Amino acid sequence: MLTTIIYRSHLCDNVPFKALEGMVAAANLTNQRASVTGILLFNGTHFFQLLEGPEENVNAIYARICQDRRHYNVVEILYDYAPARRFGKAGMELIDLREHEREAVLQTVLDKGTTRYQLTYNDRALQFFRTFVEAKEKQNYYEIPPADSWEFIADGQAVNLPADYTPIAADCSFAFQPIIDPLAQEITSLEALIRTPTGDLPAHYFAHLPDGELYAADLRSKKVAFAMAHALGLQDNVLSVNLLPMTLVQIPGAVRYLLDEIEANGLVPEQIVVEFTENEVISRVDEFKGAVKELKAAGISVTIDHFGAGFAGLFLLTQFQPDRIKINRELIKDVHKSGPRQAIVHAIIQCCASLEIQISAVGVEKPEEWMWLESAGIALFQGNLFAPPCLNGIPAVAWPEKKTPL
Ligand code: C2E
Ligand code: MN
Ligand code: MN
């Protein structure tokens, strides 16, 4: 299958431009042997390259390019298929933008085109060339430093339940995970994640409930979450709990129950956030909107969880606007390497900025993911990079500290 990859990257500061000549010559041979076309643009700082050829070969060459230590921040911006080659000649060609007029560069690229129609009719690949040559997206090229330029230092502030804590008779327990502002070194809230009494994950807990008990159990479990949060010394911090949207719709008096348990545990509604998963909300929006009304009227905030994971995330915001959204790991994972993920996250950020909806990113595991998201304007994070969930307790947080260069 004929495949095209386009990526961009940043030349390492310690690599002299002259070294590129040798690199291009070597790549020319490799590409010829693999029947791959490479068109490389360089603007003095960034590379932009199109690779076109048989899928396996293109993938293999791209995998090697990603490992190359002479450049960094490699971002894949297009992965596509085509009926015929855009550029016939296998090999590798470098166009140094500093030596050409903008218009001339695009014409040069067009001149290399071999199929009659491919490059003329709004071809995405050609549009990417144009955007790069005109530097239209440059403000979105975040130059994140290497992962090891940060150290993550645990603060030793873990909290466990006091020895005299008597658990409420319950079939569930909770793990707590902080949502933090890493640069301000501040915990902004704690999320209570349901567990079985022995610490098994939510899917396990829900799978073992008697038939028809799902929503009632989901609601009752919140009593345990509030009691534990109180015993852990939550005080005036914010506590997030998860609920199935239908729990509020199906169980009569559900919001009243929550309010009573919040009060019974010395908490106030204003410090409670309820998180609903996006795709569960979308299927019954109208009923759900009624439940949200009740929560909001009582002072409880609403978050849409797993935002962007479903099929209609942005559309959902036309139906009602939550106080916060959480972008899920599916979009966060390797965001620093993926043009499409970056574009979607940018769109979510822009949309939420216009609507004054606060955003957090969940499931952050890598320093690069965090750095990219900070650069894009997200300030709140939850993830194993900083603190994994802690059963029956609040974990220590590993705060990022910039390493001082030796
Ligand atoms: P969620 O609300 O998105 O919760 C965050 C999930 O991401 C948690 O999984 C957490 O352990 C996981 N996570 C956090 N940081 C990382 C990371 O760096 N990497 C990875 N791979 N995962 C990370 P968990 O605890 O298994 O919960 C899964 C889901 O179960 C939750 O997703 C939530 O939707 C649901 N859930 C949890 N507690 C309750 C509850 O009381 N009621 C209801 N209805 N659903 C709940
Ligand atoms: Mn959640
Ligand atoms: Mn999740």
UniProtKB/TrEMBL annotation:
<dbReference type="InterPro" id="IPR035919">
    <property type="entry name" value="EAL_sf"/>
</dbReference>
<dbReference type="InterPro" id="IPR050706">
    <property type="entry name" value="Cyclic-di-GMP_PDE-like"/>
</dbReference>
<dbReference type="Pfam" id="PF04940">
    <property type="entry name" value="BLUF"/>
</dbReference>
<dbReference type="InterPro" id="IPR036046">
    <property type="entry name" value="Acylphosphatase-like_dom_sf"/>
</dbReference>
<protein>
    <submittedName>
        <fullName>Diguanylate phosphodiesterase</fullName>
    </submittedName>
</protein>
<dbReference type="InterPro" id="IPR001633">
    <property type="entry name" value="EAL_dom"/>
</dbReference>
<feature type="domain" description="BLUF">
    <location>
        <begin position="2"/>
        <end position="93"/>
    </location>
</feature>
<feature type="domain" description="EAL">
    <location>
        <begin position="154"/>
        <end position="403"/>
    </location>
</feature>
<dbReference type="InterPro" id="IPR007024">
    <property type="entry name" value="BLUF_domain"/>
</dbReference>
<dbReference type="Pfam" id="PF00563">
    <property type="entry name" value="EAL"/>
</dbReference>
